[in-house]
């Protein structure tokens, strides 16, 4: 439903200008360490993978080096799979799930795939537990030409420069209670527009592409995750976050039209995972394992397709 939400910055109905954005930024603080919680794990993978710095974010609390973990040698006869996490830095299991997959299971798939893993696209967002970057831009609405988000622009440039066709793209996300309590009210204030508030789904679900849904692929991801954690059920209208369910645990978005990460790679198979870390019946570790299971389910499906 549409709802006029209150937010402590700005005037309702009037979009933010630079003073409001600066006020918002001044309220953000570092809450955890990208170096200690992410980079150290990336460094531990150098024996098995190629670890490459593909970019840098020159923010005041940085600079933040941006890393990709890849197969040591790309084979043009193998399909290439892109795994992204931390597009929204506050979505912890997306980052840690990408890393956990790489650390515990990645080598098991090198014989069949070229792997490209970008575990934390938004490290400032990770450290401040934020959806936006420091200039109040949502990276996951910014995967568009001439992107204003350096987080989005740099990973897009890196993947493009590799010159590889991306066969599948798995983008790891969370849906949290703070989506309704903080981030959608902030969005409404920033844009001066009413925002819809939805019931937060309790459980895992995936987002496919409206133009290329790949139903069997999504089903394989959900089936794999179902062994680890519960799958979100529809609300009273048969929807998840305002969108009709197309099958158990699956909704579709127009990925490219919305500028979402999973849409930029032009992959044949795409999925955006969503876990619910605030569930009373799920732990942070379970959410990480759900992300790992999603990646494994996707890769096992692709492996079976040959």
UniProtKB/TrEMBL annotation:
Task: Give the keywords, sorted.
Answer: Hydrolase, Metal-binding, Zinc
Q: Which PROSITE patterns match?
A: PEPTIDASE_M14
Q: Where would I find the Peptidase M14 domain in this sequence? A: 30-306
Keyword Metal-binding carried by entry: yes
Which superkingdom does the taxonomy of this entry point to? Bacteria
Pfam families xrefs: AstE_AspA_cat (PF24827)
Cite the InterPro entries for this sequence.
AstE_AspA_cat, Peptidase_M14
Q: Which cofactor does it need?
A: Zn(2+)
Q: Which CDD domains match?
A: M14_REP34-like (cd06231)
Q: Which family does it belong to?
A: Belongs to the peptidase M14 family.
Q: What is this protein called?
A: M14 family metallocarboxypeptidase
The source organism is: Paraglaciecola mesophila
